[in-house]
Amino acid sequence: MSSLTIHSFREMMKSLLNSSNFDRVLSKMTVLSATPGKVVCEMKIEEEHTNRGGTLHGGLTATLVDVVSTAALLYTERGMPGVSVDMNITYMSAAKIGEEILITAKILKQGRHLAFASVDVTNKETGKFVAQGRHTKYLGH
Asked: Which of 68-80 are b and which e, b meaning 16 or more Cβ less than 10 Å from the residue's Cβ?
């Protein structure tokens, strides 16, 4: 595993998400746990996270898949973020303002050049799927 402890990993994620770039849209997301190749985060849906219908914006869901799967990749022995090659998201139900969601990313396989991750976005209270994503990243050589 990379030399990151859970504490230093949380601090690194906080620093990344509290930046002035696009990732700041996830500044209210927190890391609950991290084990090699698996990261679990949570976030309460607030108005800034929603579409006109008052539910979690699909683009923000895609950002969650991207960022949390990359975090899981960083929390592996190689500790390389890679670059996105392919990402798909299946949207299954809405998350409304005030609801809390869990974002669970797992590295399915990490090869020499490619890594494959799955991300489940679920309602924290009910366990109901909000979305599920797959993310493929190129790791270089």
From this structure: bbbbbbbbbeeeb
Q: Which two tokens stand for residue 134?
A: 């797959």
Q: Sorting pLDDT into bands at 50, 70 and 90, what band is 3?
A: low
Contact 131, 107 (CB under 8 A): no
Look up the pTM and report it.
0.89
DSSP conformational letter for 66: H
Only one residue has tokens 């050589």, namely 141
Give the Cα separation of 69 and 131 in Å (integer): 14
Give the integer Cα–Cα distance in Å for 123 and 101.
Answer: 5
Alpha carbon distances (Å) from 46 to 33, 79, 100, 118, 139: 22, 31, 9, 25, 34
